[in-house]
Amino acid sequence: MFLWGTATASYQIEGAAHEDGKGPSIWDTFSHEPGRTRDGHTGDVACDHYHRWPEDVALIKEVGLNAYRFSISWPRVQPSGRGAVNQAGLDFYDRLVDALCEKGIVPTPTLFHWDLPQALEDEGGWLNRDISAYFADYAAIVADRLSDRVTTWITLNEPFIHMVFGYALGIHAPGKALFLDALPAAHHQLLGHGLAVQALRGGGAERVLITNNCTPVWPASGSAEDLAAAEAYDTLHNRLFNDPLFFGTYPDFSAYGIADLDFVRTGDLETIAQPLDGLGINYYNPTRIAGPGSDGLPFTDAGITGYPTTAFGWPVVPDGLRELLVTFKARYGTALPPVYITENGCSYEGVDDQERITFLDGHIAAVRQAQAEGVDVRGYFVWSLLDNFEWAEGYHQRFGLVHVDFDTQERTPKASYHWLREFLANQG
């Protein structure tokens, strides 16, 4: 069965930041620090999904989707990130999973979508190797409760973005600006993924995936300098988080002046390279790269022109998704498991969102073309079900199929929602 779904994330929609025993996350902390988010917006209430989830599940059913990718809030399940379990938090996800199953919607939970328990960040967060084991313990707790109904699991969401924005550049929680010293956060996330795969398998999981944010990398010109820069960027963005999964090795980091990843211990790569049942890919746009700049990195972002842009200013390049999928098939060969597009979407204002319809139609066509070229794609999830808290942008970017009035919490399906319902009905 091909999974037609939509996706959300706990901190972006749930609200109820301090209810029913939930502990603080790094985003609870970060968003309340002055200057961290646009206009000081926080996810304290967000879409109030914690209280309004039956209405949101009904919206998924009504549009005709057969899968829902949501994330589980680690601090709602384990307020301090380890030790005592908050049963009220597990109960919430238990009710949600039951409702999805009753409506014939495949629950597809992600265990970590950036809202790390603040108590663990106080111990170093993903820079602390111990967090990897705590993550596996948390995975086992959730699997024990839900794996009798949940068959498809995702361990991590976009570890590249979490490392770069959260630990290297400081524009997302936890707000650290460590640049290349953030690399241990990449390894410890991947190690946590491998350990969590083992825990999920032990808990009866049928299918386990990881979701990576990936991008086609375009050199700004055919010069040797730009080609080398593009290769260096591809190493950081794409290969760092995929090569260990499918090759069992890290890529060459000599372009960054790094000869040895001394935080990697014996046996780590074997743990990371656990067999997977699928790779989740989140695609938004290609990246155009030129030679080194003044910041010490071996590349600069040259920007992409000549394409339509979203309200976020991101270029709309549907064929980039086909290009990415075909590239990965060639790169990883038989090691590449089936692929699921776990996020693809765009930010536009208004309820009559014709631009989003054009965007989705073009990207779905790109998936079909990739399938025609031999890529085994088994799912497509639209980001996002609801307008929500868009991280450092607060409530200024609207990615939803459904408009949310953040004052009243009224949900209004957009033109794209109605288009998708007709599209799915025509799929049979």
UniProtKB/TrEMBL annotation:
Keyword Hydrolase: yes
Enzyme class at the top of the EC tree: hydrolase
Catalytic residues of the enzyme: 158 (proton donor), 343 (nucleophile)
InterPro entries: GH, GH_1_N_CS, Glyco_hydro_1, Glyco_hydro_1_beta-glucosidase
Entry keywords, A to Z: Carbohydrate metabolism, Cellulose degradation, Glycosidase, Hydrolase, Polysaccharide degradation
Documented EC number(s): 3.2.1.21
Reaction(s) this enzyme catalyzes, per UniProt: Hydrolysis of terminal, non-reducing beta-D-glucosyl residues with release of beta-D-glucose
Binding-site residues for substrate, renumbered to this chain: 12, 113, 157, 284, 383, 390-391
SUPFAM superfamilies in the record: (Trans)glycosidases (SSF51445)
GO cellular component terms given for this protein: cytosol
Any Gene Ontology biological process: cellulose catabolic process
GO MF annotation terms: beta-glucosidase activity
Pfam family, one: Glyco_hydro_1
Similarity field: Belongs to the glycosyl hydrolase 1 family.
Record-given protein name: Beta-glucosidase
